[in-house]
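In practice, a research group might receive sequence data for several interacting partners and want a quick structural hypothesis before committing to experiments. The following worked case mirrors that situation: the sequences arrive first, and a predicted assembly follows.
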Amino acid sequence: MENIYNYSLTNLEKLVISLGYKKFNAGQIFDWLYKKRITSFNEMTNVKKELIDYLNENFTLGSIDTLAVEKDTDVCKFLFKLNDGQKIEAVYMNHDYGNSLCISTQVGCNMSCAFCESGRLKKVRNLESCEMVEQILQIEEELKLRITHLVLMGIGEPFDNYDNVMNFIDIINENKGLGLGARHITISTCGLVPKIKEFARYDKQVNLAISLHAPNNEIRNKIMPINKAYKIEELISALKEYISITNRRVTFEYILLKDINDTTKCANELSDLLRGMNCYVNLIPYNETSHIEFKKSDKDSITRFYDTLKKRGINVTVRKEFGSKVSAACGQLRSKHEEGK
Ligand code: SAH
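A structural hypothesis for the assembly, expressed as C-alpha cells:
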C-alpha cells in the first residue's frame, strides 16, 4: 500500500491520467484530502466509484498516531508514533505573526551536534514526505486551527533527506491543498554545503536558516562535527553564492552556550565573518537538557553579545524562549518518554 499524502498534485495528476481519468480528478482528490480533510476515500462524493475503489485497494490515508501532547500557554508539543513504532516530535508555537509549527524530518539525526538532544539517537531512517504532511494535519485537527508558518527545525537534518523534504514542500505549498506560502516556510540546516548549492537553484522562495553556533573553525569543530566536513569558510562561501543567486536573506542561528561561544571576542569575530552579507543573526538562549553538560549563557552575556553585533552593524534578534516547561528543545520529549517506561 502507498500513502496518498506522499503525492504532490503533479504526481497525483500523472497517476490519475495513467489510470485513464482526467487531470482535474487529481485536483478533486487534493481538495478532499486537504480542504475537506476526509478520513475515508468513500467520502469523495464527486469522484467516480471505480477510482475510489482503486484508491481503497492501493492507498492508505494516514500512518501516524499522536502519542502524547504537552500544552502550555502559547506552545504545544506533540509526540507521534510512526507506523513502524518509531517516535518523532513537533512543536506548535503561537506567535504574534501567526500559528507556527516546527516539525521533524528524520527519526534520529546523524549530525551529532554536542549540545543537541536529538543527536543522542543516531539516524534510524528518513521521514517520508507523508509523515511530514501528517504532522501538520494531525496538529491542525487536534488544536482546531490552521498553521500559517512552518519551520523544519525538529528532529533530523532536512538536507540529509533532501528529496523527501522538497517533495513535501511541493505538497504543502500547492494552493489546491494546504496552500502554505513558500515565504512562510523555513528550512534549517547545520550546513551541508552541496545541498545549500543545490537549494540555491530551487525555484520556490523558501527561507534558509543556518545553524552556525560558532564564529570560527576551532569552536565549531568542537561542537558541530559537520564542520570537519565543510569548514566555516566553505559554508560562508556557499551562502554568498546562495544569496547572489536567490537575492534572499539568510538567517544564522546562534545558540549562546556559557563560556563556549558567548564572549565579546566571539561576537566581534562573528561580525567580521558576516560583514556585508544579506543576513540576520538569531541569538538562541540554550535550552538546557539533563544529559548534556552545556549551560545557558547568563542574561548579561546575552545582552553584551547582542549589543556588540548591533554596534557592528549586524542585524540581530534574540529568540523568544518558548519551550522550557514543555521539553521543547529538539528531542527532549522523545527522550523523556523513553525514560518514563
Ligand atoms: N538539523 C537542522 C535542524 C534541526 S535543529 C539544523 O541543524 O539546523 C534546529 C535548531 O535547534 C538548530 O539551530 C539547533 O542547533 C537548535 N538546537 C538544538 N538543541 C537545542 C537546545 N537544547 N537549545 C536551543 N536550541 C537547540
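Before designing any experiment, note the following. The pocket of S-adenosyl-L-homocysteine is lined by residues 111, 113, 115-116, 153, 157, 188-190, 211, 253, 255, 284, 286-287, 289, 329-330 (CB under 6 Å). The longest helix spans residues 129-143.
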